[in-house]
Specification:
The protein contains eleven helices and 27 strands. The chain is α+β, with helices and mostly antiparallel strands and 588 residues long.
Amino acid sequence: MLQYGTRFCPTADLSQRVPSFDGVPLDVDVTLPETGKGPFPTIVMLHGFGGSKTNFETTSPAGPAPEEAGNGSTIYRYNNVFFARRGYAVVNYTARGFGNSCGGGTGGDHAGPCGAGYIRLADSRYEARDTQYLLGLLADEGVTKPRDIGVTGISYGGGQSMELAFLGDKRRSTGGDVAAKGELVPWRSPDGKKMAIAAAYPRWPWSDLVSALVPNGRFLDTEVAPVGQPLKPFGVPIASYLNGLYLTGVINGYYCGTAPASTPCTDPEANVTQDKAWIDAGQPLSAEAKQALTGISFNHGGYAIAFMKGASKPAPLLIQSGWTDELFPPEQALRVYGYLRSQDKQAPVSLQLGDLGHSRGSNKPGLNHFFNDQAAKFFAHYLLGAKKQGPAPGSVTAFTQTCPITTPDGGPFKAKRWGALHPGRFSFGTAGPQEFTSAGGEASVAKAFDPVFGTEEACKTIPLTPEPNVATYSRAVKNGFTMLGLPTVKARISSTGQYGQIDARLWDVSPEGTQLLVSRGTYALYNSQSGEIEFQLHGNGYRFAMGHTAELELLGRDAPYYQPGNVPFTVRTSHLEVSLPTIQRKPR
């Protein structure tokens, strides 16, 4: 049908769904330019967890007006109509296990072909292959240019976009065809056309799902992360998000083995309910839990694909991450950025950073408009052949968090590379010893800043609250400075007990006696670990005002956000220094 300067080709009812490579029916819409036969350069838009194909569909060329849509401003100039009017075919489909692609919660229709249509948490052997299979069908129909394809999505869709970028012109086998399960093979359409991703714009993505959901604090932006790093040691679950996401799937989706009883979970690798139960049980992890987390790290993210035999060169990437996103924070983008730049100084990977993303992200309209305009130029360069390429390879565009949330974001701050974004350091600490235990500090503070069940406001402040059983380090701010990056903590420690954790919070303490959470992070300890440690917080773009105080707090429990340990432990610190990266060369 013709609408808003496009041709809209919807899946109108269940009978029109498209069987994927394994027969699972998918709910797919395609939007085409108003004129032209094709084939067209094509963009796939992948929705978030619990969403559907309609999330990035609109009845307006630009998208909903910010005053009408709230955080829906994320789709301003980021939707099917906007891209189709610029010459692209646009694919919007509902991921397997959600909506009319075999979702519907426990009351959904999970019989017949939908029996195996359960959520696989963006397993690159299944969800990514769904996207590839649909694109292959469109290429064979003359709709899609086989090697002029862009992928993009937010959150769940951002993680899948990352996977597809690293797959490039390959796909992963599900076994029983030309290769063993999981191996990389050439990506071909059903009729044999050579297919490839030409550009990817992941928004709020993960690159390694275990490092996001069960972080261990071993990633450093000064080093290239080895594959499997999130497994050594196993980390600290972000329990509030794990609970919230799982519940979303129960309500809106279809987990393997949950309903009806006639469709038991025959694939242990897809048993999300069992995996969550193992994680919820905490340390010590069972052998089955360790095996499950290992599988998730290697099969549910883009980063591990780069280290596989026969891996392709990743497609050009523009990655958007939120400073205040406590589900998929900036290190998920920096892991990819650092690796690709280590392999090739001219690698086409660029970053967008700001106060956006899940929960505490403010997602102000102006910031989304700016970044979406960059993305439009990025896709036009790689898919339409436009001379202007958008952000240059290696470049970083960052905005700062500003409070109150009605204030426009600060920036843009631009740099040719990540390290050049923050040439200075504001450091503080002490050589003297401090000690804290697994009992944690003030429970009301932890609860107030839980991003899922506590607050969703990045600018939230509370009265300055003294906390027992914490290690605290602070420095007064004389002239004001802007932090732009990931704070680094170095210390000597000695710990007693098993499966300990160091939870860290960075506060802005005002002269008026209030505190605002700037950043946080965690570091999973080996049993009775002692010696030098170094770890980083999630980071932020944030201005500390003159007369305020920057304060680092270390504690052994920050629940309900982080899952508390099962075994009592004690941590003693000394010679601690925290370093905040700044845009000023000599901040005070």
